[in-house]
Amino acid sequence: QNQATSPLFSDMASPDEAPNTRRCFLTTSKYVASCFLISLVCGSIRPVGAFPESASTSSCFATPPGTSDRSSSEIRLVWRDWASHDLSTFVTEILLKEFFNYNVIIVDGTSGSTASWGPEIVAGDYDLDMEQWQISSSTYSEYVTRDMTVLDLGAIGYPGRGGIFIAGADTLLAADKYADFYLFYQDAATGIANGLPKYGEIDIETLNGDEFPVCNSDWCSASDFEGYYVPPQCEGVLNDPNECFEIVMVRPTWDAGYFEQLTTNLNLKAVHGYYAGLMGDVVKERLAAGKPSLYYRWTPDPLVSSTKGLRLSYPDYYVGCAAGDTRRGDGPVSCDYPETTMRKLGSAGLSKLPQALYMLQSLSIQADDIEGMLANHTATGGPYTGREAACVWIKSNMDRIETFAPPCISQPLENPQTGDLVFDEDALECVATTVYPKSSFTFTCLDADNMGNADRSDVSLKIGMRGWTSIDLTSMLTAIMLKDMLGYTIQLVDLSASSTSAWGTEITNGLFDYDGENWQTAPDLPSYRTYMEEYKSVLDLGEIGYGGRGAMWTFKKTLEKTPLARYYKFWMDSTDVFAAGFPAWKDIDAPTFLGDTFPVCTTDVMSWCSTGALEGYWAPEQCSASPESCTEFLMASPTYDSAYFEQLTHNLGLQVIHGYYTMSGLTSLVKERYDNDLPTVFWWWEPDPIIGIVGAERISYPDYSYGCDSVNEKDADGALACDYPETAMLKLGSSRLPSDAPHGYFFLTQFQISLDRMTSMLGDHTDGGGTYDTQSAACKHLKENFDIYKAFAPDCISNPNIYPNVNIGDTVFNSDDLICEVIECPSHQMLAAAGTRVFCQNCSAGLVPSADQSACQFCPSGTAVSADGKSCDSCAPGTYAEFRGLTSCEACAKGSYIGSSGATTCELCEKGDYQDELGRTSCKSCSSTKTTDSRGMYEASSCKCPSGLFLSEDNSTCASCPEGMECSFGSEYKNIKLYATDDSLRIPMVLPGYFTLSSAPLAVFLCDDGDEEACPGGGPESCGNGREGLICEVCPDGQALSEGVCKACGVGPGILLWVCLPIVLLLLAWIMFHLGNDKITANVGIPLMCSVVVGLIITTVQSLALFPGLSVQWRTQGDVFSAFKFFLGNPQGVPLSCALTDSPVMLFAFRCLLPLLCVLAIVIVYSLSYLAAKIRGQTPWPYNVAHNTLGQLLQALFIAIGVLVVQPLRCYSHPNGMLSMSSFPQVLCWEVAEHTWIVILGVLVGIFFVIPFLTSCIMAVARAPHTRNPVGHYQRWRFLLYRFRADVWWWGIVFLVRQLALAFSTCVPADSPHWQITYVGVVTAAYLAAVCAMWPWKNSVLNIIDASSMMLLNAVIVSSGSFATTKEDDIPSFVAFHFILISCFSVLVALIAISIARHAAKSGPRGDYSLGLSPKTADNIANTWIQFVDVSSKMPPDTIKHCIETFNEFDVKFLRKCMASFQSIDSAFGTKSAPRLNTISHSSKSIDDVQAKVKDAEIQAKNEASALSNASPAIVFI
Q: Is the peptide bond before 742 cis (omega within 30 degrees of 0)?
């Protein structure tokens, strides 16, 4: 919307002075095409279709007024989205489409810029813009004046003008009649009082919303005035709302700053507010409320129309007053906005559509017209769309529409008659036409032998006949040859009523195609230049052969008598003239002869004609005084040859008067005088029949020389003094002949008739005294001179060989060069044809001529056309031709080769080879260690290390991929550092479950248990689940592992460690005090049974917890076993690093302290019980009880403590040769100080816990049979002695040794899973065999449970062999493992079978077999037995019963065994002890009856037990 601010044509030529656009287009088409191509290359031309478009389909008229079909011609009409453009566009569309029947395309130019009309029209985006005001002088000059690529079609009619308009002007005018004048607004009070908006009255910010502020140019006001332009005169007074009102604007860029400058410089009390697209709504809403507004708009526009806007008048515009416009609000402009001429602009291509061009140039829509259409437009509240409003206007103004679309264009006549109006495409106007009679020429002159064989009857040629004999004979001879010899259809056009000077217009308009004799033009005449050089609508076909010449003639028979009469000087003296019989003036009675036509020569006809007595004549000065002394030359008309011979008479001093008798009168008068043998001089021309009839000869004047007639003033008093020149008779033809009838055009350019042959025909013609009419005379002449005329229509056009019946050496017609030529095709060409044209043509690419050159044939694959194009050559090695018909063999591409000739394809280089050059016969090999990824590689860089290898750090060799890494093809060490930023590079890739450091990317570490989630592989130091550090074992600060994933630490771990752990330990100590120190009984009670079972289960679980530490790739069971680690002092899921630290040394130290904490817990509980007892006056827990409780706890933790000892030594190896602790993989064994400290801690645990505890237990077991205080010893070591039978009291040591042996399983040997499995299997099998053999527990159920748990462990460990991986270099271990395992299993099965059988068959646990005793042993046993009998004999029976009741099943069986043995001994030796033994035996059999007396005997038993203090320790133990 940035309209110009200066007059459109202020600095350029007026459009009226522009040259004729059609001529300019015709004469500069090549130049325009060149400009277009240059613009296209330079990028200023955009492709057609840059804007949305649609074909026009709606109709205004039910039956379109136009009758001519021009739908093959497309006109692209741009539409823009403002109402006036909308209306003018649709008016034009309806006229072009429904009156002229063009194919109209509507192009939506909304997205374009109106100022870009030049590039857009030239680019073909559209052809026509009907309302354009964005025309700068430079743009107009470039596209319209200079390049002529855009046509200025004139003004549309209505002007355009921006301005400030008043909505509701009646209100303001009622208050002050000057309200439409700018001075009124130098004071805002009256306007505001009558409704104009005060500054700030309209909520500009709310209305504009997100688009606020619309006014964002650098000259817009800021701060408090944001969104406005505030002139200086209003800046200081805006606090007073009555000081300045608001003018409603659109955007600051529309007519940028022009009206703001007027406000500032004319001191108007107004601010400008900007509302973008809401401006119209603001004005309309105020108007609806009865409030006036001043707003910016332009005319014509719907808003101005709908609000009846009155334009505010500013100081008048004059040229130059806005020259200083800065396009800013603070510029110097103080004059009104100028009126802009809206112009119609079109593409130069419209010149090819003259009917459309006429309409577009003449179409005019005036201001009243556009206002009327706007009133009907929906934009102003009317009922019609733009197209409908345009249609209504057209139908209401059909009289005016006829001036834009006259019937001669919209409804052209199919067969116009003379006087009808037709459209002259050259003059771009409707003109009255003249139609000349024409007839079909059907006469056949030649016989079949001489007629041509070509049939071109579909082409009709119109030959002009002018009515005089020579041209009619020439035209008839031409018509006969064109019809009979060339086969055209001929029409004869009667031009006798036409003027010979109208040849240009008549040929151009298609009235006839050929004029065989024309002297009305020549190359130096304007008419020639106009039609042949400028319009190019008429062709000069050359001279006919004979010349045309006007002259003064006399009879030959007169010259025979008076020979000097043929020379002009003879006529200088009338004496000899009269003597020769030539007539004197008035000898011929002209008035009588001519009758009413006399006088022919008058001043009305020619100003130089004589008057008075000489009226009807022309007399030179030398004859004016005494005309009777002068002879008379007979003339036809004073207009013929325009006083040429009159000037010769005058200037050469001839005694001659010229008399004028008209053409017909002169003809009859000459014949009459010839017949009467009266000497006569007369004007005539040649060739003409009368010359032949009277046998005339030409009078000779001074010779003609070039330029001598330049002084011809066409007046009898002129200065001519040289003879009349011979005129070249030209053949003229339509410019359509070369394209429509090339053979006829060739003939017409060749055809000639000599003067002799023309004279001969004239003599045969009835006009020349002969007996033949025109048709017959021409036919007779053709037959008599056939060979001569046949040369003008040779066989190549009259009897052509029709392709393909054309051979090399034949003469054919070349329609391009319009010549006949002998076909002599070079050996690399073939004969070809296009229509009737036969010519030599190069074979298409890849083809060569056949042997007879009648066709082209493909070169087969493997060959290509030779350099000379004659043959096919085999492809050389290194080249190939895959397909037939190739122009050249193609070099083998890089990555391929061919070693043989005639190849159709190239072979791809094999893997391991490459070729980086074109057209090679072999491939290059990669170095010994490198290869290529696939076949067909074309660069040396394609040679890379194969899969499993990588390019070493020095880029010299391919090295083996380290274990734990995967080296894909092309892996390179140097890429490792770049991999972090470009993961497309190929590097030795870390496999999942492995880890490398960036500092040593090839030193591979095996992650803990091959954890693929923690170690996802890829580049160096790749960790998953939020982990980091060496082998991805560390979490970031503030996080800890939870289910394998690093998660943020909470308060839970600290509470668990520092609050819960002490409570748990103290509670555990208290429970163990109570459950592990009940009364001592020989039998197995329920508490003891439960306690032992729980202990066995815990021991089994601890053993299972060792299995994840083995080098076995567990499946899901591994997760289950890992959960048991809690029982080894390694709590799973407890994030100790959150509560303590993530230091492996500190975590290991914490585990080492757990036994000490347990001891501390026992001590604390014991101390608390002591204090409680003191306070309450009770007996505290005995020391022996505390000692037993501590032993129980340490025995339960023994395997866990043993694991702590071996844990520092339990390392697994990495592929890089280093070792990592199994429990802390981030700690490298024997490499780092951390491991050293952990080893030291493990050693300390062994020294201060394992060794002392095991040693004390062994000593306690060894001392048990010999201690002097058996009760106290038994109470202190109850955990070690109480659960087993008396004869295997030492089994607790075996149990501890088994636990310790299992604890060492994970490091014997650590990297060989088969040996670990073998070790554990042997330990469990040996212990199981021992259990089955000894049956050590006091209860059979406990023996079965212990044996079953060992069988479970053994079964699990044996089955784990399927999960153990075997290295290739560890096959012997694998074999040995299976051998040992099978052997152990066999022995185990045998031992179990024997034990079961033995226990089933015997009543005692040891059987009845005896190996015999030594005498010393027998003495010891005998002494002990005697003491036992002595003591027991002193015991009350109830006490003995009580003791028996507490025996376990094995003691009862053993006692029965003893009684049975002594029973047999007693019987054998006759002793008296049998009854006593029987009583005991009987009592033992009725144990159930004695159970009720147990409680009564408990006190007595305690008292009696004290009596045993002096007995033998062995007896007490037993």
A: no
